[in-house]
Specification:
It is a single chain. The relative contact order is 0.16. The strands form two sheets. This protein has a seven-stranded mixed sheet. A seven-stranded mixed sheet has the order 7-8-9-10-11-12-13. The chain contains eight helices and 14 strands. The longest helix has 8 residues. By secondary structure, it is α/β, with parallel strands linked by helices. The chain has a single domain, classed as Ribonuclease Z/Hydroxyacylglutathione hydrolase-like (Metallo-beta-lactamase, Chain A), CATH 3.60.15.10.
């Protein structure tokens, strides 16, 4: 199994188009310590011929342009992208589906809650049902989007997509609205959890023993966006546990046996994006890597 990180940033990318926070300012200036990043998306394959895209970010077309493996190989219209799986109905994870609308046969995998959200929005009708099959995935049941590649969704503490929020929002709910995904092939296991509001015993148990983990690294501290005067929401209010702190992901997973541990879905405000920062060194000292666009994971 080979997984390529097409995009590693949270919504807005790095630098974000309308932001000049301390991290984005370095990226805008071309500082080599801050790699430019597109919004989170993955590509997985077992044979190098057929690919599963995981989370279709708004930057998907740009990501395809940067990855020859995902580009057409035969005359006329064709694509090695045979399937797409999405973890929730957030704009950051489904907007790229509109890029896949050009009468291309693709199998779409998502929970019933996410498929219902897409069906309720007529803009997604451009994904013709004659070409794009919609395949509901049930929590705890495996699918096979590509021959030899198993996909299983499991509940991740989170919340509904931002555009679905009402006057009150339940944070940490475990259901079909937001899930993590497990990929299995050849006896190897990769867990992808780009949004996790809290580390529950069930989540720890599911992660334990994974050969690779791509985990929610949205912010370094819970109040990062508030302290930077970028937003009045904490990380946990947005459905993401911070990296640092007593209840952060570094502490929560410190004693869990995992192969490669990689933070993904990195917000533009996160100081771990600066390669020589104190925060970056703390993460690496704890045995974690920081995802970047083009990173490859071979299992």
């Amino acid at each position: 199994m080979r997984v390529v990180v097409l995009g590693s940033a949270a919504g807005g990318g790095v630098p974000q188009w309308n932001c000049r926070c301390s991290v984005c300012a370095l990226a805008w200036s071309g500082d080599a310590r801050v790699k430019r990043r597109t919004q989170t998306s993955l590509a997985a394959t077992v044979d190098g011929e057929a690919f599963l895209v995981i989370d279709a970010s708004p930057d998907l077309r740009q990501q395809i342009l940067s990855q020859p493996m995902l580009q057409p190989r035969r005359p006329g219209r064709s694509s090695p992208i045979k399937a797409c799986a999405v973890t929730n109905a957030d704009v950051d994870h489904v907007a790229g589906l509109l890029t896949l609308r050009e009468r291309q046969k693709i199998a779409l995998y998502a929970t019933s809650a996410t498929l219902s959200a897409l069906a309720a929005n007529p803009v997604f009708d451009v994904l013709s049902t004659q070409c794009v099959s919609r395949n509901p995935i049930r929590i705890g049941a495996a699918s096979e989007p590509l021959p030899g590649l198993l996909l299983e969704a499991f509940a991740a503490p989170g919340k509904v997509a931002l555009w679905q929020e009402g006057e009150t929002v339940q944070i940490g709910a475990e259901g079909e609205e937001s899930v993590a995904l497990e990929l299995q092939s050849g006896g190897k296991r990769l867990v992808y959890a780009p949004a996790c509001a809290a580390m529950t015993p069930a989540m720890r148990e599911r992660i334990a023993g994974a050969d690779a983990l791509l985990f929610d690294g949205t912010t370094y501290t819970d109040d990062e966006l508030v302290a930077s005067s970028l937003m009045n929401k904490t990380a946990r209010r947005m459905g993401h546990m911070p990296i640092s702190g007593r209840d952060g992901s570094l502490a929560a997973l410190a004693d869990v046996k995992i192969g490669r541990k990689i933070f993904i879905h990195l917000n533009n405000s996160n100081p771990v994006l600066i390669e020589d920062s104190v925060e970056r060194r703390a993460v690496e000292t704890a045995g974690w890597e920081v995802a970047y666009d083009g990173m490859e994971i071979a299992l």
